């Protein structure tokens, strides 16, 4: 296998086939329907309010009438949510309407709680992971899952990866920084090493982004703008830290089409070629590392998606939506297919999601 190229081997192919059947794609394929696997959807359990833990940053839910709720953190409402965040039947109805065959469930990013004391984050992670596993069990042909671990304690987080795999989850979601620690920091090395060994994907999601104060105007608009910039910071940190060079089989999925990262990558490549300190620190060309990440398709404009495919390769793209939040890409499968007709997004998803099983 060549570093910098698609890391597929005979085990991946075997598990590609097993995943293909396990998610019911074969039947869809027989009917000439290409299955849509939505890799980027979020979950909030409806029972956080019952938990005994008490800490001002512990998330709680205020349930309202009509299946609505407010997620409250530090005494302030963080976001209004509704039953789509936890109700399996409702999700399946929405999936049918949206043309989605399989959703990959992951925690609402704010619940990753990298700022909580590690033992509380560990407790929350267990609740989240158990909840996702239970949702999958209700309709295993419609759902798969990505869990969370207490990243603020790297040793504990690394240990918990084994539990994630035993639960049948396909990977873990982490923020774009761990309460200020960049993702390329050497202290996270044991975590990446174990994730690679277990074949678990690492889903990097914007969280507590930098730069909000540089924009002004409506808070929601600023948040929409800085998320993709934040992902670019995290991806560049992973690049600068040589993480994918050191762990060539590690699968890292970047949110929202990698945010601004694919756009700034040619500039980074240019700088890498001309700046000796950088090229000494990183052996692999940034343009090659760019092709080692995975990317979802949440970029909203077909032209942006075509640019992304051109930059990173057609085998690194998987369909995503950000369901059930307001910013979600509607009809994610149709959107992706309309922009890029010849890409097998479902086959890509099967490789990405199947790699975890290959090394059990
Ligand atoms: Zn998201």
TrEMBL record:
Domain Amidohydrolase-related: 37-339
TM region positions: 12-32
Keyword field: Hydrolase, Lyase, Membrane, Transmembrane, Transmembrane helix
Pfam family, one: Amidohydro_2
GO CC aspect terms: cytoplasm
One annotated GO molecular function: carboxy-lyase activity
GO biological process per UniProt: secondary metabolic process
Name recorded for this polypeptide: Amidohydrolase family protein
Source organism of the structure: Bradyrhizobium rifense
